[in-house]
Amino acid sequence: MPLPIILDTDPGIDDAAAIAAALFSPALDLQLITTVAGNVSVEKTTRNALQLLHFWQADVPVAQGASTPLLRPARDAAYVHGESGMEGYPFVEHRRQTLDKPALLAIRDALINAPEPVTLVAIGPLTNIALLLIQYPACREKIRRLVIMGGSAGRGNFTPTGEFNIAIDPEAAARVFASGLEIVMCGLDVTNKAVLAPEFLASLPGLNRTGKMLHALFSHYRSGSMSTGLRMHDLCAIAWLARPELFTLKPCFVAVETEGRWTAGTTVVDIDGRYEQPANVQVALDLDVEGFRGWVAEVLALAP
Ligand code: RIB
Ligand code: CA
């Protein structure tokens, strides 16, 4: 039985690959996409999500979410994904619209109407998830678990110690990590290993129209390169859901720094239990890279 999921995302070129996998993995049932400001503005991430769903003629509702972090000014990663957030492919015009309710209400209604608790997947800043928990705390009971791409037990990629999704909205991440939700964290410790090899990237245009489109986007994606390999950060969150055996997890106490002038947005991952605090996050510390690559090839071959 495919696992129902709700995906909160900031497309974003690696988000596009994650959305493809979420749509075409037989293990998953993508029920709702919500968008958040992150890689680019929420207007652009929403437009990008709609373009992708139109490309695949996928019948998945989209609801627009937060336009800024909880407290801090918005920043972006256009230097990685291009000004549009999904540079490189000429998506056709379409008339697809978002739901006429904001992301928070869309997630709340989906959770209320679900017969069983639903898995949330967040592959952008955690602003929408934090707002959901603040405004509708009863929803927590209907969330089976939260799987994120975010954080790092080691160095960062947006600040010296902060991974982008966390560092954009540290206050949101701190609220989510302290919420008591069951959380699986796919951070840079595994996503920096999740590299698609140049040979595979070169084979994409011949795979199918999805491969052709992703190849065009990947040619503009700056987390690695087509000649050395590209880091598929967001795909890891989907991969864990479809193939958890590819990952090595460790239950850890994780706190998010929000005060430090130089360290705000750092996920402090207490791997050795120094603080003697109960573990609140399952942290992915290792990845079967060849198994991941095999899964990516398999799932993208299922796309049109
Ligand atoms: O650090 C990588 C994360 O930041 C990914 O989710 C990427 O899409 C960007 O949002
Ligand atoms: Ca993302």
What does this molecule look like?
Strands 3-2-1-4-5-6-12-10-11 form a nine-stranded mixed beta sheet, with helices on both faces. A three-stranded antiparallel beta sheet has the order 7-9-8. It is built from twelve helices and twelve strands. With 304 residues, the chain is α/β, with parallel strands linked by helices. It is 34% helix and 20% strand. It has one domain (3-301): Inosine-uridine Nucleoside N-ribohydrolase, Chain A (Alpha-Beta Complex). It has helices spanning 13-24, 42-55, 78-81, 103-113, 127-135, 164-168, 170-177, 188-191, 198-203, 209-218, 235-242, 289-301; strands at 3-9, 28-35, 62-64, 118-122, 143-149, 183-186, 195-196, 224-225, 229-231, 247-256, 267-270, 281-287. The longest helix has 14 residues, at 42-55. Helix 1 (13-24) links the parallel strand 1 (3-9) and strand 2 (28-35). The structure holds alpha-D-ribofuranose (RIB) and calcium ion.
